[in-house]
Design goal:
heterodimer; A: alpha/beta; Rossmann fold; 4-stranded antiparallel beta sheet; 10 strands; B: 249 residues; mainly alpha
Chain lengths: 254, 249
């Protein structure tokens, strides 16, 4: 799918965020274009998750502007924010499946909350479709506790896909998964981009995930983006912060 | 001291938000009904059993004292007063605090630390309305119903004891029992049970919603919910009894 460089679906300008004395983001600028998968790389605690929570309005920046699909996130009222969020899919690091609901109810939840006039047949079809997309049709009546880590991730992604979002936000999609399952999740992220014509911000510290899913990679360190470009462009540098990160990943994988 | 004051401010804010979200539409009817059913049904068996035993045991304990004055015929009315005015609402509230309050604290705490509440928020759902308002309303409305039910079951327990000792008939027992019970007694039972129910729901939700520090925080939320609710129920009982005796009796 081609990237529309003239159409930024996410635009961050000079975003700052602190928690108490600790400054997490220190003036971040980022544009994500229509159809583009942007990977944000960085060490644990570097503020990657804070960044996507700011994009979806779960956290407000202390300073700077965040525009998503043309809307200034900080100035939206509750209803407008809910409408915007219905166009954004958020895949959580922990999958965040509702423990008290089976897979079917988990998938139905965002659908019935956002589209209240759907018939039972339409809901069933939508659930069957997204389950088929993530290759887990057989789990429809299972509880989250009965699923493996990889299956939970897939169902978490399916739950966001059911509303056909324009933007996908993935928080550590491959964290805690074995290499084979990680590869399946990477493939799924690319499939989602192709099938749903969506843009994505992928937060990760997994270089394999970054290499295979990112059209563009940005590296976050000490609250600022220090490198961006293709995967090879980002790591073709003498910057010790980038090299250390690369070598650490390489050694860990090895 | 600073931490205590900050906590008090959090409670104040949580309370204000509760009233705002509870009265402003849209209303989460389906979830409220689910929670009504959940709170009521989940506690029914233990309430029945405890109520029956409470009625039987208190009757047995009271008999010997009344027998000294040859006043065992007062047992039905004495038990009715004790059960309706004090035991039914108090014991029901304590059981619901232990069973439902801890469940709410643990459930919401677990949802908080596993990002399920945030997931709900990004699914365009107001988690406060969906999770908090529905649970607090459910406990506030269901505890009075459960307390009234426990009152009846406890009276049944008292009747069984009296019947096997004095061979009193069912009709005679209940006629004697309810002759001393007034509309005010029933109204106070309902009102104070509603206060206890609100306390249980609110305490469980507050502790669960603000849970942190992973699984340790979940356990702490469940434990704190029960301990604080039970303590507050006793404080409220003391205050309500003082008020009722000052103004109504």
């Amino acid at each position: 799918m081609s990237i529309d460089r003239g159409n930024a679906v996410i635009s961050l300008r000079d975003v700052h965020k602190s928690f108490g004395e600790m400054a997490v983001l220190k003036g971040v600028d980022l544009d994500v274009f229509k159809g583009e998968n942007v990977v944000v790389l960085g060490r644990s605690g570097s503020g990657k998750s804070v960044l996507i929570k700011i994009i979806v309005g779960l956290l407000l920046p202390d300073r700077g502007t965040v525009r998503v699909l043309g809307c200034a996130v900080g100035s939206l009222d509750t209803r407008e924010l809910q409408q915007l969020r219905s166009k954004i899919g958020f895949s959580f690091q922990s999958s965040a499946l509702y423990d008290g609901m089976n897979v079917r109810a988990n998938l139905e939840f965002p659908l019935v909350r956002n589209k209240r006039n759907l018939t039972r047949k339409e809901i069933d079809e939508a659930v069957a479709q997204v389950l088929d997309d993530v290759g887990l049709s057989q789990t429809i009546n299972q509880m989250p506790s009965e699923l493996s880590g990889g299956q939970k991730k897939r169902i978490g992604i399916a739950r966001t896909l059911i509303l056909h979002p324009d933007i996908m936000l993935y928080d550590e999609p491959t964290a805690g998964l074995d290499p084979v399952t990680s590869e399946e999740i990477n493939d799924l992220i690319n499939e989602v981009q192709q099938r749903y014509n969506s843009s994505a911000v992928i937060i990760t510290h997994d270089l394999t995930c970054a290499r295979f899913t990112g059209d563009r990679v940005v590296m976050l360190s000490e609250g600022k983006f220090i490198r961006q470009g293709s995967f090879d462009e980002v790591f073709n540098t003498d910057d010790t912060r980038v090299q250390d990160f690369y070598n650490y990943n390489f050694i860990t994988k090895a | 001291m600073k931490a205590f004051l900050l906590r008090m401010y959090d409670i104040y804010e949580f309370l204000l938000r509760f009233y705002k979200e509870a009265f402003l539409p849209p209303y989460e009817y389906k979830e409220i009904i689910n929670q009504f059913f959940d709170v009521g049904i989940r506690s029914l068996s233990i309430i029945s059993l405890t109520g029956f035993i409470t009625g039987m045991v208190f009757t047995k304990q009271s008999r010997s004292s009344l027998a000294e004055f040859g006043a065992t015929s007062w047992l039905p009315s004495l038990m009715a007063i004790a059960i309706i005015r004090a035991l039914a609402p108090l014991v029901t509230a304590l059981i619901v605090a232990g069973k439902v309050g801890s469940h709410i604290g643990a459930e919401l705490g677990s949802m908080k630390v596993t990002e399920q509440i945030e997931a709900m928020e990004v699914s365009s759902t107001n988690p406060f309305k969906f999770l908090i308002v529905s649970r607090v309303l459910a406990t506030t409305c269901m505890v009075p119903i459960l307390a009234a039910y426990m009152g009846l079951v406890a009276m049944l327990g008292a009747y069984v004891n009296v019947h096997f000792n004095e061979e009193t008939s069912f009709t005679t027992f209940f006629q004697a029992a309810f002759v001393r019970i007034t509309f005010i007694d029933i109204a106070v039972l309902v009102l104070k049970s509603a206060v206890y129910g609100f306390t249980i729901g609110f305490t469980g939700c507050f502790n669960g919603y603000y849970a942190d520090h992973g699984t340790v925080g979940v356990g702490r939320a469940a434990n704190t919910s029960v301990v604080i609710s039970m303590f507050l129920i006793f404080v409220e009982e003391m205050l309500i009894v003082q008020l009722v005796h000052s103004y109504l009796h």
